[in-house]
Structure formats: C-alpha cells, structure tokens
C-alpha cells in the first residue's frame, strides 16, 4: 500500500501541496516568512520534490499527516534552498516517532571490550540511510534556539562523502584547508570556553565532536545568525558561502 501511495505521489499531476497547508507551513517558520515571494515559490518546488522522492514513515503508532510531512520537508529544503536537490541523493526515508526514542549503542574501548547501552535521542541520521526524528522535537518553531530538523539534515549534508566529520563536500568556491582551519579554531575556542566554565550562546552539544559542531552551528546560522556572526565570524562566513544564504541580512534588513 505504501509503495502504491508513493508511486501515486511520484506520477500524480495533482498539486501535492495545497495552498492552505503551504501557508500554514510557512507561518510556523518565521525565517521562511521573511523570504521574498519568488524565493518562497522556489522553496515550494524543492519541498514538492522532497515529498515526491522521499518516504515518510510513522513509528510507535504515530500517524504522519500531510501537514507534518510539509513541516519537516520545509525545514530540510531550507538548508538546500540555494543548492542542488542532489545534496539529498542516496537515501530515501524519514522516520517520525511521537517523542524521543531509544536506540542501542555500542562502543569498543581501547582494551577491546565492547560496551552496550541505550540512548534516548530526539534525532538521528544514518549514512546513506534514514533520518529519524522525534515529532515532538521536530515541531519546534524555527524561532526557538535549537531545531532538530535543521540539525539532522545538516548531518546529511556533512555525510554526503560517507563520513560525519564536520567537513561536507565543498563547492569549488570554498577551500577545504580554510574550512578546516576556521572550524577547528572555532571548535577549540568553544571547548576551551566550556572547560573554563564560561557561558556560551550556542547549544553546548556542539562540543561533542567536529560533526556535532557543524550541525549545531548550521542550526544556529539559521536561528540565531547574529550570535554566530558575533562569536564565530569566520564560521559564519564559511556557512554563508556554503549554504549560499545570508540569514543575518534576511532577518535584519537595513
Ligand atoms: Zn547531531
């Protein structure tokens, strides 16, 4: 049944995003409301493509409505608004849980001992696999401080080369050497500040690893661009070139 429905979505000429749902989706996301109408139309095309090529599955009994699909797709496509849809090639499914979900984890320590445990997560991205989200977390409006949808899809961009390391495949106008230099300096600055017990203005989960730093900074780039520009100016510039967007100017027009 799911396959039939997906085929219908793929080939149907019916508009897949009713105006009422599209407007409701935009209104939940202040950043999208600030975009001009031409850009919103371009975003809508990307969202339509996302809905036609990705599958959504509800887990733990969650019914996934069209409004929920549009909400997630809108945020996912915001990241690639000025990139190519192929940035999301190579994987298929978005899985939504009603709330946080438990996943088994495994780690082999230096002595070769395998440790198993469970973690409660609100989001997870697999290399060439699904994006898994808590709907409770995903429903957070874009004017809040953090956003799990932007976070997990930023991981997807990072993992296009098969590894989550905070350095996604870069466009020709960006130098991987300069990217690594600027991100490493900012990451070390954040870790040093946290070690000193200083308050930081971004989610301190960014200190977990360079991959989490990239994902958290990508969230903050869209949610709190003034903070990223002020505290990590070189990273702001790298992200603006990478995403080909300038949220600071969009949200604070002169
Ligand atoms: Zn993460």
Salient structural properties:
binds zinc ion, two-stranded antiparallel ribbon, 50% helix, 254 residues, 6 strands
Question: What is this structure, in a nutshell?
Answer:
The protein is built from 12 helices and 6 strands. It has 254 residues and is α/β, with parallel strands linked by helices. Zinc ion (ZN) binds next to helix 7 and helix 9.
Structure description:
About 50% of the residues lie in helices and about 15% in strands. It contains twelve helices and six strands. It has helices at about 1-10, 20-25, 30-35, 35-55, 65-80, 135-140, 150-160, 175-195, 210-225, 225-230, 235-245, 245-250, and strands at about 55-60, 95, 100-110, 115-120, 125, 130-135. The strands form two sheets. It has a four-stranded mixed beta sheet. A two-stranded antiparallel ribbon has the order 3-4. α9 crosses α10. It is globular and about 55 Å long. It binds zinc ion. Zinc ion binds near residues 151, 155, 212 and 215.
Helix percent reads: 40-55%
Order of helices and strands: HHHHEHEEEEEHHHHHHH
Bound molecules: zinc ion
Provide a count of the helices.
12
Distance between the termini: 52 Å
Percentage of residues in strands: 5-15%
How would the blueprint of this fold be written?
Blueprint: H1 2-11, H2 19-27, H3 30-33, H4 37-53, E1 55-58, H5 66-79, E2 93-97, E3 101-108, E4 114-121, E5 123-125, E6 131-134, H6 135-138, H7 148-158, H8 176-195, H9 210-223, H10 225-231, H11 233-243, H12 247-251
Parallel strand pairs: 1-2, 2-6
Antiparallel strand pairs: 3-4, 5-6
Helix pairs in contact: 2-5, 4-5, 5-7, 7-9, 9-10, 10-11
Bound molecules: zinc ion.
Zinc ion binds at residues 151, 155, 212, 215.
